[in-house]
Amino acid sequence: MPISTAAVIGAGSMGAGIAALMASSGMKVYLFDLDRDGAQRGIDLQLQRGGFPSPELAENVTPASTATDLDLVKECDWVVEAIFEDLQAKHDLYRQLELKDGAYLSSNTSTLPLSELVRGVKDPDRFAITHFFNPPHIMQLVELVAPHPETHATLEQAITDQLGKTALTCRDTPGFIANRVGCFWLAAGVHLARKHGLSYELADATFGRPFGIPRTGIFGLLDYIGLQLVDPIWGSLEDSLPADDGYSQYPLRGDAFIAGLVERGLIGSTGPGGFYRGREETIDTDFTYRPRQTPTLPADDPRELMASDTPSGNFARELFHTMLEYCRTHCSEIANSPADIDTGLKLGFGWKKGIFELAEDLGEL
Predict the structure, then answer these.
(1) Best label site of 32, 286, 339, 343, fewest CB within 10 Å?
(2) Interaxial angle between packed helices 230-240 and 178-195, expressed in degrees from 0 to 180 and rounded to the nearest 10
(3) Claim to verify: residue 150 and residue 242 sit in the same structural domain
(4) How far apart are CA 164 and CA 156, in angstroms?
(5) Residues 26, 128 within the same domain
(6) Is the distance from CB of 108 to CB of 81 less than 8 angstroms?
(7) pLDDT of residue 365
(8) Residue 124 to residues 46, 73, 151, 238, Cα–Cα distance (Å)
(9) pLDDT of residue 186
């Protein structure tokens, strides 16, 4: 049966975005926050950001309060929890929820394992992780961790047929698929750019368009994610993974320069600046901004670029092989196939081709 009524608990950017996506598909949606005004602010922000294809679809979303309105979840076929990444807070919330028979509960977590989350759930068989990517109305990927076959089938159908997204089946491993490999790429990219002495502009140009990767590259993408989130996101992955995992070679939590940017309020695209300030300026080593440079690459073709004995070529070659080896090593652990890793990179990080597709094209497999 299709999902007709849903609830999203947490009206931040992600939660409100998920609610707008559901409402735009024709679902009746309750959006919860600490109070109704907070939920309404989430709806208003989605109207400003284009979360609804047409403004009248916002009428499908009803603002609600977790303090007074939680009984409304009894009407819902699917409840999505999208509060902050704190295991105890999520467990406390789950204990308050009284779902109707046959309803599904899922978490939008990007870091916490299902095996831990499910301990606070009344009906574990009907619990899943549905990890949407931000902004939900634009990003095509939803990672799905649902061990119970019926729950998996129902939510996969809702994600694909009703919401029009791609459901990527994941195993219950840290970072799932897209963030596990995508965040590794970013961490390795930061360290290797420094090792090879590349400016931010040159690093982003090098491992950007020649490889079919968005022009934000590495440092521009970190600005977009938000530098204040580097410690919690990468720290969670570093804590969750074994000591011999590749993340240990390229730690980002506690990075001194990123910490310095955050201390100065330079958190990236949502602040006054980050590695970049607008399109015209780039941060310098003393935390002042200088004019942004337009780098010239030794080659636009990735084969020629990696073959060049230049800082760009050496950086591109080492980062490409480091990323490929990491994905090869962990493929069977985190994904059903190399194609799933490629899908995660394409739909979660905007790569035109995944790492295995690129390697095949470049004769590296």
Answers:
(1) 286
(2) 110
(3) no
(4) 11
(5) yes
(6) yes
(7) 76
(8) 32, 17, 10, 27
(9) 98
Same domain, 193 and 62: no
The pLDDT of residue 120 is 83
pLDDT at 80: 98
How many structural domains comprise the chain?
2
What is the spatial distance between Cα 303 and Cα 75, in angstroms, rounded to a whole number?
56
- pLDDT of res. 13: 92
| Token pair belonging to 46 | 């989605």
Q: Is the pTM of this model over 0.85?
A: yes
The pLDDT value given to residue 254:
94
Is there a single domain that holds both residue 231 and residue 157?
Answer: no
Same domain, 199 and 312: yes
Q: Which residues of the chain have pLDDT under 70?
A: none
Domain membership of residue 43 as a residue range: 5-169
* 357: nearest Cα among 334, 339, 335: 339
- Please provide the DSSP assignment of 134-166 as one string: SSTTT--EEEEE--SHHHHHHHHHIIIIIS--E
Both 117 and 148 in a single domain? yes
Alpha carbon separation from 304 to 104, 110, 159, 312, 313 (Å, rounded): 51, 37, 41, 11, 8
- CATH code at 107? 3.40.50.720
> If you compute the radius of gyration of the chain from its CA atoms, what whole number of angstroms results?
21
pLDDT recorded at residue 111 = 85
Residue 9's pLDDT is what?
A: 98
- Domain boundary pick from 169, 192, 226: 169
The dihedral through the CA atoms of 311, 312, 313, 315 has a sign that is: positive
Q: In the listed set 130, 151, 169, which residue is the last one of a domain according to the structure?
A: 169
Coil/strand/helix, residue 89: helix
The Cα 142–Cα 140 span in angstroms is: 7
Tell which residue, 38, 18, 15, 36, has the closest CA to residue 27: 18
Q: Do both 322 and 187 map to the same domain? A: yes
**pLDDT value for 109:** 95
